[in-house]
C-alpha cells in the first residue's frame, strides 16, 4: 500500500515521499525518533503518522483470533441473528407493514418520496409517534428526532395522532384482556410530544451541521430510535449551482446517516420530493436529487396515487420483494384503506 | 447560523488560525467541503479536522425543541394559538383553528372561482380588532393582477360584520390597515418582497397576501430550469418571511390546462393501468406553478366548480385528512353551505374542475 493513501496532511505526505518512505511497509519497523529526524518534524507528529500507518497496515494483515478472521467483520449467521432480534416500527397501516415485513426496520436508512400532498409528512409524524409505543404493546419505547427543513411540521397534528395512538392502545388492551378488569393506559399525548426532539433547519449548511452533530446528540439522549429528515431535498434543491459539490455533500451526509443507523440501532427516515424526468419519449415522475443519490439509501418507498387511492410501493430494498400496498390518511393518522380494519396492527 | 464566524467559535487557536489562513471564515465555508478536502486544503491530519468539524457543526446547529415545548410556546405566546380563523366553521375545524402562522397557504383554482374574494375576506379578518376575533394588525396585500377592489372589501365587511362597520370611522380604520402593493414586473415584485421584509420587522404586520404568485413568475413560459430558478428564490424567500415573522402567508395560484392526456406516472406503474385511470374530469386543469412549488407550500386549498356547485378542497395539509366543502359567494363574501366536509380518499382531491364558472 502506498503512503499517498494515508489520511495525513499533505505536507507530511510530501516529506515522507521525498525522504523515500513510499510504501506503508517501509514505516512498519521504524522508531518515531528516527522518522522525526528523517523528515525534520517533531516527534509527536512522527508518532501520529506511525499510528495512522499501523492502523492502515493492520487491515491487510491476517491475525488469527478466536473471534473472527478479519478484525471488525461479522459472520452472516451473526448478522441474521441480530436482524431477527431487531424490532421494527409499525406504520399503523397493516397492509403497509405486511409488505415491509413488519414495519420500518431499524439499522437501515429508508427513503420515502412522493408528490406534494400524498402524505409524506403525515407518515413522518406517524412514525415519530409510533416509535414511542411501549414495549408491552409491541413498540420500541423509543424517542424521535425530527429534522424539519421545510417548516411543514404541524404540532397540532402530532397531538391528534398521539391521541389516536393512545386510543388504539386502549382498544387493544380491552381486546386482549376481555375477562380481566380493564387496565388504564396511563399515557398522555403530551408525554409523546415531549419525546420528539425537533430541529428547524434553514439552510443546507445547518442541515450538514445537524447531521454531524447528531452522533453526539444521540449518545447524550438515550433511547432515540428514529431520525426523520423532512425533507432531505428542500435546501439542496434551491441553493445549488455546483452539482458536483451537491453530490459530494449528499453522499457524505448519506454515509453519516448510515453510520448512525448502524451504531445506535435506529431507523433513519429521509423524506424526498419528486421531480419529472424525460425518458423514453415522455416525462416520468421520479424522486429528486438525481441518480447518484438513489444509491444512497438502503430502502426506497414511493407513495403514489393509483386509481382511487394512495399506494406505497417498495422501489428498492435488499431484503424484501418489491410490492405495493394501499393506505389511507385519516383523521387519526395513517391507517389501512379498508374502514373495518382501523385498529393499529401491533406485533 | 450558517454564516457564523469560525474565529468566534472558541476552537483551539492553532486550528482556528489555519482555517482563517485558508480563507475559510464561516461555518458555511467549512461545511461545504468534505473532511478529506479539508485535510488536503488545511494541511493538517484527519483527526484534527474531524474534531474541528464536529465542534463547528455543534455550534452552528440550531438548538432543538421538543414538540411539547413547541406546542406550549404556540399556545402561550400567540394569539389564537397561531391560527387566523377563516370564520368558515368546517374549514377552521379541519385546519385546527384556521390559516396557520408561519407557513405558506396556497389557494388554487380557475379564474372567477373566488380566490380573490377569499383573500379579501382574510385581509379583513386579520385587520379586525381582537375583541371581534381578528388579529388587530396591518395586512400587506400584493396584488399582481390588479384585481383588488376596496369597494368590494368594504361591502364584504359591512355585510359580514355590520356591528363593527356601523361604528363611525371604523370602515376607514379597517381599510386603512390594509396596504396594497401592485407590482407589474417580476423585478418590481422582487423589490416588493424585499421591502416587505424590512417593514415586517418594524411594524405590526399580521398577514401577507400575494394574489397571485403565478401571474408574474410564470408569465414567461418555458419548461424546466430557466423558470424554476427565479421561482426557487421567491419560494425560499417567502417561506422564510413567513417563518421568521410568524405570520400567515396566503398565496394564490392560477391554473393551466394540462398539455398531456395523463397525469405524470412513475416508471414502475403499469402503462396499461393508465388506460383505466379515471378520465372523467371534464377538463384537465393543473396548478400553474409546478411540482417544486407544490412541495414548498404547506397547505393547498383547491377551489373548483363541478356540476353547478363550488367546492373548496383541502388538497394538501399535514394537519388533517383530505376533505371538501361546498361554498357559495354572496354579498358577505365566501361562505360554506355545509360545515360537515366530505372526506375524499381518491386523487380527485387534487383535480381542479373549471366547469360552469360564471
UniProtKB/TrEMBL annotation, chain A:
<dbReference type="GO" id="GO:0000400">
    <property type="term" value="F:four-way junction DNA binding"/>
</dbReference>
<dbReference type="GO" id="GO:0005657">
    <property type="term" value="C:replication fork"/>
</dbReference>
<protein>
    <recommendedName>
        <fullName>DNA repair protein RAD51 homolog 3</fullName>
    </recommendedName>
</protein>
<keyword id="KW-0233">DNA recombination</keyword>
<dbReference type="InterPro" id="IPR052093">
    <property type="entry name" value="HR_Repair_Mediator"/>
</dbReference>
<keyword id="KW-0539">Nucleus</keyword>
<keyword id="KW-0238">DNA-binding</keyword>
<dbReference type="InterPro" id="IPR016467">
    <property type="entry name" value="DNA_recomb/repair_RecA-like"/>
</dbReference>
<dbReference type="InterPro" id="IPR020588">
    <property type="entry name" value="RecA_ATP-bd"/>
</dbReference>
<comment type="similarity">
    <text>Belongs to the RecA family. RAD51 subfamily.</text>
</comment>
<keyword id="KW-0547">Nucleotide-binding</keyword>
<dbReference type="InterPro" id="IPR027417">
    <property type="entry name" value="P-loop_NTPase"/>
</dbReference>
<dbReference type="Pfam" id="PF08423">
    <property type="entry name" value="Rad51"/>
</dbReference>
<dbReference type="GO" id="GO:0140664">
    <property type="term" value="F:ATP-dependent DNA damage sensor activity"/>
</dbReference>
<dbReference type="GO" id="GO:0007131">
    <property type="term" value="P:reciprocal meiotic recombination"/>
</dbReference>
<keyword id="KW-0067">ATP-binding</keyword>
<keyword id="KW-0227">DNA damage</keyword>
<keyword id="KW-0234">DNA repair</keyword>
<dbReference type="GO" id="GO:0033065">
    <property type="term" value="C:Rad51C-XRCC3 complex"/>
</dbReference>
<dbReference type="GO" id="GO:0008821">
    <property type="term" value="F:crossover junction DNA endonuclease activity"/>
</dbReference>
<dbReference type="GO" id="GO:0005524">
    <property type="term" value="F:ATP binding"/>
</dbReference>
<comment type="function">
    <text>Involved in the homologous recombination repair (HRR) pathway of double-stranded DNA breaks arising during DNA replication or induced by DNA-damaging agents.</text>
</comment>
UniProtKB/TrEMBL annotation, chain B:
<keyword id="KW-0233">DNA recombination</keyword>
<dbReference type="Pfam" id="PF08423">
    <property type="entry name" value="Rad51"/>
</dbReference>
<dbReference type="GO" id="GO:0005657">
    <property type="term" value="C:replication fork"/>
</dbReference>
<dbReference type="InterPro" id="IPR016467">
    <property type="entry name" value="DNA_recomb/repair_RecA-like"/>
</dbReference>
<dbReference type="GO" id="GO:0140664">
    <property type="term" value="F:ATP-dependent DNA damage sensor activity"/>
</dbReference>
<dbReference type="GO" id="GO:0000724">
    <property type="term" value="P:double-strand break repair via homologous recombination"/>
</dbReference>
<keyword id="KW-0547">Nucleotide-binding</keyword>
<protein>
    <recommendedName>
        <fullName>RecA family profile 1 domain-containing protein</fullName>
    </recommendedName>
</protein>
<dbReference type="InterPro" id="IPR003593">
    <property type="entry name" value="AAA+_ATPase"/>
</dbReference>
<dbReference type="GO" id="GO:0033063">
    <property type="term" value="C:Rad51B-Rad51C-Rad51D-XRCC2 complex"/>
</dbReference>
<dbReference type="InterPro" id="IPR058766">
    <property type="entry name" value="HHH_XRCC3_RAD51B"/>
</dbReference>
<dbReference type="InterPro" id="IPR027417">
    <property type="entry name" value="P-loop_NTPase"/>
</dbReference>
<keyword id="KW-0539">Nucleus</keyword>
<dbReference type="Pfam" id="PF26169">
    <property type="entry name" value="HHH_XRCC3_RpoA"/>
</dbReference>
<dbReference type="InterPro" id="IPR020588">
    <property type="entry name" value="RecA_ATP-bd"/>
</dbReference>
<dbReference type="InterPro" id="IPR013632">
    <property type="entry name" value="Rad51_C"/>
</dbReference>
<keyword id="KW-0067">ATP-binding</keyword>
<dbReference type="GO" id="GO:0003697">
    <property type="term" value="F:single-stranded DNA binding"/>
</dbReference>
<dbReference type="InterPro" id="IPR030548">
    <property type="entry name" value="RAD51B"/>
</dbReference>
<feature type="domain" description="RecA family profile 1">
    <location>
        <begin position="80"/>
        <end position="255"/>
    </location>
</feature>
<comment type="similarity">
    <text>Belongs to the RecA family. RAD51 subfamily.</text>
</comment>
<dbReference type="GO" id="GO:0005524">
    <property type="term" value="F:ATP binding"/>
</dbReference>
